[in-house]
Amino acid sequence: MKFKIYNLFFLVVYAIMHRQEVFLPFKNHPRFNELLENIYTVLDFFNSRMDAHKTDDEWSVEKVLQVIINNCRSWRGEGMKMFMQLRFTYEQESHPDEFFMPYVCLSHVNNTYTVASLSIQAA
After folding, report:
1. Closest CA to 83 of 45, 35, 39
2. Is the separation of the CB atoms in 101 and 107 below 8 Å?
3. Number of other CB atoms surrounding residue 32 within 10 Å
4. For residues 5 and 15, is the Cβ–Cβ distance under 8 A?
5. What is the pTM of this model?
6. How far apart are CA 78 and CA 85, in angstroms?
């Protein structure tokens, strides 16, 4: 069965459901609390739909995606937290030149110039 995916949402939901155990270590972390609440809202919704469609057959990728696609129509996003302002922090290092110096040196070494390769134009 071939699917035409018009929305990346289906694949994101599938990936989150497939690897939902990845989020467990971060569940009680204060920094990720709001984000994980949203992820678990999505997981709870689609996991309950999967439980309702239990069959004796093996679950295939196609069957799981079909359940996700069918239930996306009824997804309303209730209970999702909206993030108005994303918060980022940046801490300047005491000597940022030490960070860039190896890259500058490597780029200079990799781009060695010879007199023969330079073209000088008269002004």
Report:
1. 35
2. no
3. 14
4. no
5. 0.59
6. 20
